[in-house]
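Person: Please comment on this record:
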Amino acid sequence: MPIGKLDHYSIRTLDLEASRRFYTEVMGFQVGFRPDFDFPGVWLYNGAAYPDSCGVVHIIGIDPANPEGLKAYLGDRDVASLDGTGTVDHMAFTATGLVDIRKRLERHGVQYRERSVPGLGLHQVFFEDPSRVTIELNLPADEPQRAA
């Protein structure tokens, strides 16, 4: 059973709109096709929503007035457990354009931290989405010098 690349990750949230805004405005993803599930949600794509893609991030909305559709499809989870990444530490993406990344994060009031990884040729930017899921962007190591 060969394993390919990561297909997508999903986040459950009580504030679907805040997560949609974060992933479209801060991360630059686009809302695309999502099947007609019996619970609210948004599928986000990095580029066009191609038929052979399931997007890169699935935002799963929790409707407290009607939680049965979500429970039937994905199972029940305690709402109190939906803060941060739990046992998953972070999600990582490759990226370029450190100047633009910094400006975008600052424009949206998103706090971030940076570090360079010695020996790997990487510069990293870490920040959190509205559900406190940590996002890591991996850039070429020379990006800070070009951004100066």
In short: Helices lie at 16-26, 68-74, 98-107, 143-147. The longest strand covers residues 122-128.
